[in-house]
Known about the structure:
mainly alpha, 2 helices, transmembrane helix, DUF3096 domain-containing protein, transmembrane, membrane
Amino acid sequence: MVVLGVILLIIGLVADISILVTIGIILAVVGVILNLVPIGGTRRRVF
């Protein structure tokens, strides 16, 4: 999801399409949040 967001962000900046830039930023932020928050009770971090 993060990779797709970054790709859309780059395409939006190059083609000067503001909706692609907005969608790219949203996808990148949501992807980073989902990678940091454990979902379903699984613990990804080892302390």
